[in-house]
Write a structure and sequence with these properties.
The protein is of the alpha+beta class.
């Protein structure tokens, strides 16, 4: 159907065929198969479109003269007419994008082709050629966007494993100068379900190639943004201000080689952002336990605990450290997606670190103290700190956790749970000792596992930290319990 100027409706038979054909060039009607089907209907016959290899692109297969088809494909002739056995055919060459050869549009019917039918075939071939070019242009644009997206992800993954030199080389081709900096902040923007693509486009537009904007490969609602400068960060805050239900978590400024640390900080800040009226939070805005520890003792203990890793080649050491940081923050599956490796690779690397450090990551307190050491390690000098006889033995974990400032902080944090009549403090303490396992906690307390999960979930807004999701928030709560003596220190064989 098509509308006339006076508003009346006319049937397809009343609309000139050329006008009908042009309707197929509208954005909503660009379908080669529909055009070929329309042609077959209008000439009262059958039509087929095939490429230079004979592959069917649209219509129904027809018996065609191979010699004529070959001449059309190679460009020796532009069109041909053929008749045999009471069937009349018209064949027209159709140019194909990205190839010197051409396809063939062929129409077959019982009656001979008059001038009108021949014109239909010729003009339809021209429309089909335009549609094929438009489709290829759209596909090429999609491939370019996908390649650019993959390139951004590859750069992020190189930064995650501390390969800054390679990351800069990859980025230099499309975004010159983007990583010509020693430090950057990482932001994680969270959108409502189904809105990430629109959010990604807004972040790309807002940062104007002054930041590395990546679809998070692990979380479908997250966009990761590595921001070398400060202006782009302000633009990101403006983006979430315009989008209800969108949250922003940012890291402290870190060296590019510490991108994995910054990413963990941004995810931690994102959890806090959900409690903020402006839906945004930065990791440095909160007091963290490592800042309350004696710096010299903390460095000494960290250097001693991580010393077995210092014997490894630099690349291997960086790979193991980056994988373990992410593996302690997230599940093995999500860490694998972020790094672009298999989950078995993540588990194998973490098991190697367990063996070198003499710890078991099945112990929640052990994970918390190794996480503390890894976060402290990124602040150490490139050369490992080696204890000397003059300096005495390395500090122990007990010394690191015994400072009055840390103990006061721990008592304040853990003490928030005491006001609840359900004795949330006892549940959380037992849950930590049980390695974060709700079933074992339920057996120890004589309650249902679902009750344990409800208690732990109820403790989250009180502590303003996520517990069930794991990661930095949980490890801070574990360190608070270690500092107050509510749970026993982990067994470290070194």
């Amino acid at each position: 159907m098509a509308g006339s100027e006076d508003g009346a409706r006319r049937t397809d038979a009343e609309v000139p065929w050329a006008q009908q054909l042009l309707e197929h060039l509208r954005p909503t009607g660009r379908d080669v198969r529909r055009v070929v089907a329309w042609l077959a209907d209008r000439v009262q016959g059958a039509a087929v479109l095939q490429d230079d290899t004979g592959t069917l692109l649209a219509g129904t297969p027809l018996p065609l003269d191979e010699a004529l088809v070959a001449d059309l494909v190679t460009g020796r002739i532009a069109s041909a007419a053929w008749e045999a056995g009471g069937q009349h055919q018209r064949l027209v060459r159709v140019g194909q994008p990205r190839t010197a050869a051409a396809g063939v549009l062929a129409v077959s019917r019982d009656a001979p082709f008059d001038r009108r039918a021949s014109d239909m075939v010729t003009h339809t071939a021209q429309v089909v050629e335009l549609l094929l070019r438009a489709r290829e242009s759209t596909a090429a644009g999609h491939r370019l966007r996908q390649a650019t997206s993959d390139l951004r992800l590859a750069i992020l993954q190189l930064l995650m494993v501390e390969d800054v030199v390679s990351a800069r080389r990859v980025a230099a081709g499309l975004w010159p100068g983007l990583l010509d900096t020693d430090s950057a902040c990482v932001y994680v923007v969270e959108s409502p379900a189904g809105e990430r693509e629109q959010l990604l486009a807004e972040c790309l537009h807002a940062t104007a190639e002054r930041a590395l904007v990546v679809r998070c490969p692990a979380m479908d609602q997250h966009v990761i943004v590595v921001v070398p400068g400060d202006a782009a960060a302000q633009e990101l805050r403006a983006v979430i201000g315009r989008r209800p239900g969108t949250f922003l978590g940012g890291s402290a400024r870190q060296g590019l080689a510490r991108t994995s640390v910054a990413y963990g900080q941004a995810v931690s800040a994102l959890a806090v952002a959900r409690f903020r009226p402006d839906n945004a939070a930065v990791y440095a805005e909160r007091t963290h336990p490592e800042r309350l520890m004696d710096p010299a003792l903390l460095r000494s203990w960290t250097a001693h605990l991580l010393r077995p890793l210092d014997t490894l080649a630099h690349h291997t050491r960086a790979e193991l450290l980056a994988t373990t940081r992410l593996g302690l923050e997230f599940t093995a599956v999500n860490a694998a997606k972020v790094l672009g490796v298999s989950r078995n690779t993540v588990r194998a690397r973490m098991e190697r670190v367990e063996g070198l450090l003499g710890v078991s990551f099945s112990d929640l307190t052990a994970r918390a103290v190794v996480h503390l050491a890894l976060n402290t390690q990124v602040c150490l000098e490139p050369a490992p700190v080696v204890a000397t006889p003059e300096l005495g033995a390395p500090a122990g974990l007990g010394e690191v956790l015994s400072g009055p400032a840390l103990r006061t902080w721990g008592q304040d944090l853990v003490g928030r749970l005491a006001a609840d009549a359900r004795d949330l403090r006892r549940t959380v303490r037992t849950w930590i000792a049980a390695g974060g396992n709700s079933e074992r906690t339920a057996q120890a307390l004589g309650v249902h596992a679902q009750t344990v999960r409800e208690h732990v979930r109820s403790a989250e807004p009180v502590l303003q930290r996520q517990l069930l999701a794991g990661g930095s928030d949980l490890y801070e709560v574990v360190l608070a319990h270690l500092a107050t003596g509510d749970v026993e220190q982990p067994r470290l064989t070194r």
